[in-house]
Specification:
This protein has helices at residues 10-13, 20-30, 46-59, 77-84, 93-105, 112-115, 153-171, 189-195, 197-201, 203-206, 231-249, 261-272, 286-292, 310-315, 321-327, 332-346, 393-413, and strands at 2-8, 35-42, 62-66, 89-91, 119-121, 125-127, 136-141, 144-149, 176-185, 209-215, 218-227, 253-256, 276-280, 301-306, 350-356, 371-377, 382-388. By secondary structure, the protein is an alpha/beta fold. It folds into 3 domains: 2-171, MoaB/Mog-like domain (Molybdenum Cofactor Biosythetic Enzyme, Chain A, 3-Layer(aba) Sandwich), CATH 3.40.980; 176-256, Alpha-Beta Plaits; 272-413, Maf protein (Alpha-Beta Complex), CATH 3.90.950. Strand 13 (276-280), helix 13 (286-292) and strand 14 form a beta-alpha-beta unit. The chain starts with a strand and ends with a helix.
Length: 414
């Protein structure tokens, strides 16, 4: 079962808009056993759109197209599809009434140009968009399917989940597929691959495929198994290899599937009935921001300080000025003092701190750019960790925040 994704838009080609649709669609389709053969990003030109879809329909069972369905003159996807499938645009009355009601409910005028949203190729099956104004469209040619969807991500996702995949499941017999993704932090892809060499070689016996999915500070290990066996049998084969995997790299594992360090941390803190506070310098409030992105953070997050200047570290947080003077702001001793002061000042069970040269400039004769200290203060002891990154400021702040979270997750696991 093969699919080709085609994303239309000059704004994607020139980098004005990041093509997040392709990543989401590829992951979503694959989770149902649909293999994405290729992803194409193309311009808003009729001839290009026509040729790409026409060729793709010969190569893949399903072609999913996004973009070019708006009411303006540069949105020509519907006209091109009419030409490709030798049909014409007609008014879809239910869509007309829905779009009209959409604008009226918001107190907006229903303009003539908006009526075009209800025009659809006569030969398509309309996929009604209940979260926007541009419908999706389903075409069939010689047993192959072409689906055209709006480019707005949340509208595309709604139609994929409620219309497209359910229809694909009805039309085609999809293979069974089981994925298991294990999340690691703090070590690189090559390091993990070296540790897993022998174990990875044993996967062939179970017909399991392993993918390394690296990102800054993190490596996802995704095991996949395809087959006609009962899903419970496939899951059991994956589970056996996962147990072996954890015996080898368990110290670096923090979660599974779509979890994040911050979601795992909130869950672990809630489970233990514990709280945390932050004292941040180079991360500039990123730890607090990441944690409060998670629903339920209010139950575990006590307080946070962004103390960027040496003076504020002493005045606002209470760090002894002599420690800063003796060891320098960028030091394990100052990171330790920051974490201890934050924990005592807030009354939280744990406190995390950061201080360092985030880059791309800075550094001194002792510590170069990318040197960051993170510390974890607990009632029993304070753990400090020295990190060494490159010169990418945002990446360094992200990885330092994640490393601090990992310190606390592992402490709670103990």
């Amino acid at each position: 079962m093969k699919a080709i994704i085609i994303n239309i838009g000059d704004e994607l080609l020139i980098g004005q808009t990041i093509n997040t649709n392709a990543a989401w669609m590829g992951q979503y389709l694959n989770s149902f056993g649909i293999e994405v053969e290729s992803t194409r990003c193309i311009s808003d030109k009729g001839l290009v759109i026509f040729d790409e879809i026409d060729v793709a329909l010969y190569k893949a069972d399903v072609v999913v197209v996004t973009g070019g369905l708006g009411p303006t003159k540069d949105d020509i996807t519907k006209h091109t599809l009419c030409e490709l499938f030798q049909t014409e645009l007609v008014m879809h009355e239910p869509s007309y009434l829905r779009v009209k009601a959409f604008f009226e409910s918001r107190g907006l005028p229903f303009l003539k140009v908006n009526e075009q949203q209800a025009l659809v190729p006569a030969s398509c099956t309309v996929l009604e968009n209940m979260v926007g104004t541009a419908n999706g469209m389903w075409f069939e040619r010689n047993g192959h399917v072409c689906v055209s969807l709006p480019g707005v991500p949340f509208e595309m996702q709604y139609l994929m989940e409620h219309e497209v995949v359910p229809r694909i499941q009805q039309k085609f017999e999809l293979p069974k597929i089981v994925h298991r993704t294990i999340l690691t932090q703090g070590v690189g892809e090559s390091f993990i691959a070296d540790l897993l060499t022998e174990w990875e070689n044993s996967l062939a016996v179970e017909d399991i495929h392993l993918a390394y999915l690296p990102s800054p500070g993190m490596v996802k290990l995704r095991m996949s198994i395809y087959g006609g066996a009962d899903e419970s049998v496939l899951n059991e084969r994956i589970r056996r290899k996962e147990v072996e995997l954890l015996e080898i790299v368990g110290d670096f594992v923090f979660g599974y599937e779509k979890e994040t360090l911050q979601s795992v941390l909130v869950e672990r803190l809630r489970g233990e009935g514990k709280t945390v506070s932050f004292a941040e310098s180079c991360t500039g409030g990123m730890m607090a921001q990441k944690l409060t992105d998670v629903s339920g953070a209010s139950q575990v997050f006590q307080a946070g300080w962004v103390v960027y200047h040496a003076q504020s570290k002493s005045k606002e947080l209470g760090v002894d000025a002599e420690i800063i003077s003796k060891y320098g702001e960028i030091s394990g001793e100052v990171a330790t003092a920051m974490a201890d002061c934050a924990r005592l000042k807030s009354g939280s069970d744990f406190a995390l701190s950061s201080t360092g040269w985030a880059g791309p400039d800075g550094g001194d004769e002792i510590h170069g750019v990318g040197t960051i200290f993170v510390a974890l203060s607990t009632e029993k002891a304070t753990i400090v960790k020295k990190l060494k990154f490159g010169k990418n400021r945002m990446r360094n702040r992200e990885m330092a925040s994640d490393a601090a979270f990992m310190l606390l997750i592992k402490e709670i696991q103990k």
